[in-house]
Write a structure and sequence with these properties.
Blueprint: E1 11-14, H1 20-29, E2 34-38, E3 54-55, H2 60-64, H3 71-81, H4 88-107, E4 131-132, H5 139-154, E5 158-162, E6 165-171, E7 177-184, E8 187-192, E9 196-198, H6 207-213, H7 230-236, E10 242-243, E11 251-256, E12 265-267, E13 280-282, H8 297-305, E14 311-317, H9 318-323, H10 332-338, E15 345-348, H11 351-358, H12 362-378, E16 398-406, E17 413-414, E18 421-423, E19 429-435, H13 442-445, H14 456-469
Helix pairs in contact: 1-5, 1-14, 3-4, 4-14, 11-12
Length: 493
């Protein structure tokens, strides 16, 4: 109950991030009384971590630029990039809601970066220009959502409770969800409402849950530390189905800043679009396994995914270290200082010594270096077709970096129907329980590939759609400003 008015909440939203914020805003603007529980001490969730890339087909921005596009074309193109592996039910809902969401964000003041939209940059390209972001990454989106959300909190339509971490769902005798339990600094409390939406994020900040759900992939994550799987645990306790964990693709590539902490992932700059790749890459056998300067991001990511533990080794010599741009986001001096001081950064006076430090066969590594040098001398890489062949590896000392795939999202998530109702293992919905955002799993919204914008935009768009369509008390079905919103299709109940 709302202690101030003693009226019941219409809706409990668990999470105040990329899905929870638009959801709470749109429900409150319809006059709904929303209780929003957030484990963090601030709103924004993964918006504080995300690169902020979004995509939509049929936006006003595209129309102004003469770009012809449609939700149907977006659907086909996304499935093409993801090899048909995206959940068709969720993708169809998303592509219909994406353009209205981007238009809404722009109405609130969101400004795309210059030159937007584009066909692609960070991931495999779309076939048309529908991909965009703001100047300040995802914080550009938070900057326009926060004032609206703050206003609704002040008006009493959103009851925001920070540092309230959900511990479970409350149900009645029939198994229908009737509320949420949450832990606070003052103990655990129960909160009741006729509907609950889980917008609580993923699980890649919880090593134990990661090992359980995604056991074949060693965790090295760069994610919101509050992505601890609370929504998955709570829904699974009611028999909800968690799936699509096999739809995984790592980011290329990085290392653990703290070798003992799998949540301390840090990126390496290895994209040939960002810097020339001077170094040689080898696998656990000491052999080259890919073209180091291949222009396809998908090729590089999948080449690494096929390696045991998504691990590889980066090899260079003194001349390359001196002349190439640093691989880490550091000054050249700080980058050099890591070698021999961090377990992932090793150096030796000999190739054989480097092989021992990397844990690869010395004979194989020597052979790979000889083949690399021969390709540099000939100007042709006959094995993999590498084009940037700038320097031999021959000047001691020799350097190596132990790298691996980085996890930036949680692949597995809750199964839902077209109304985003959470489904049990037998396919029946859990009554009064919906889910949106990363708790659905990246494998559901983007399949087994990184499709431009299909992490953040589905969270924003489907959160907004739920806020516009979930039933609220008829007596309060008006906006905070007194005007009525456009009629929207209600989700199946």
């Amino acid at each position: 109950m709302d202690r101030k008015t003693r009226r019941p909440w219409d809706l409990i939203v668990v999470g105040a991030g990329s899905a929870g914020l638009p959801l709470a805003i749109r429900a409150a603007e319809r006059g709904g009384r929303v209780l929003q529980l957030e484990a963090d001490s601030r709103i924004g969730g993964t918006l504080h971590w995300s690169s902020g890339q979004i995509s939509a087909a049929g936006t006003r921005l595209q129309a102004e630029l003469g770009i012809e596009d449609s939700p149907a074309a977006h659907y086909r193109d996304a499935q093409r990039i993801a090899h048909g592996s995206i959940d068709p039910v969720v993708l169809r809902r998303f592509v219909q809601e994406a353009a209205p969401t981007v238009d809404w964000l722009m109405d609130l003041g969101f400004e795309p970066a210059p030159g937007m939209p584009v066909a692609g940059e960070a991931h495999e390209q779309y076939d048309t220009r529908r991909y965009l972001w703001g100047r300040d990454k995802a914080l550009s989106i938070l900057a326009v959502l926060r004032p609206v959300h703050d206003r609704l909190v002040r008006a009493g339509l959103i009851d925001l409770r920070l540092q309230h971490r959900m511990t479970g769902l409350m149900t009645d005798a029939r198994g229908a969800v009737i509320g949420v339990r949450a832990a606070t600094a003052n103990g655990e409390f129960g909160f009741r409402a006729p509907r609950v939406v889980l917008a609580s994020g993923g699980y890649a900040a919880d090593p134990e849950l990661w090992r359980e759900i995604t056991p074949r992939i060693p965790l090295c994550s760069y994610v919101n530390p509050y992505s601890r799987g609370d929504g998955l645990r709570a829904a699974r306790a009611l028999g909800a189905r968690v799936d699509r964990g096999e739809k995984y693709l790592n980011t290329f590539a990085g290392f653990r800043e703290d070798p003992a902490d799998p949540r301390s992932g840090s990126f390496l700059s290895l994209s040939p679009g960002a810097r020339k790749v001077w170094e040689m890459f080898v696998d656990h056998r000491g052999r080259r396994f890919m073209r180091e300067d291949h222009p396809s991001i998908d090729y590089r990511e999948r080449s690494l995914l096929r390696q045991p533990g998504t691990a590889m080794h980066i090899v260079m010599d003194e001349a390359i270290l001196q002349n190439a741009a640093p691989i880490t986001l550091q000054t050249p001096a700080a980058y050099r200082a890591r070698f021999g001081r961090h377990p992932a950064f090793v150096k030796s006076r000999t190739i054989g010594g480097l092989a021992r430090l990397l844990g690869v066969p010395a004979a194989a590594l020597r052979r790979s270096v000889r083949e690399h040098n021969a390709a540099v001398d000939a100007g042709v890489d006959r094995r993999f077709g590498r084009e940037f062949l700038i320097r031999r590896i021959e000047k001691a000392p020799f350097y190596g970096i132990k790298a691996q795939g980085i996890t930036v999202l949680s692949p597995a998530g809750l199964a839902v129907d077209r109304g985003l109702r959470v489904l049990r293992k037998d396919g029946r919905p859990v009554r009064n329980l919906h889910a949106v955002g990363e708790v659905l799993g990246f494998g559901r919204t983007s399949g087994d590939a990184f499709v431009g914008g299909l992490s953040l935009t589905p969270a924003l768009a489907l959160g907004k759609w739920l806020g516009e369509t979930l039933p609220i008390a008829a007596s309060r079905a008006h906006t905070a400003s007194g005007s009525r919103p456009a009629r929207r299709r209600a989700p199946r109940r």
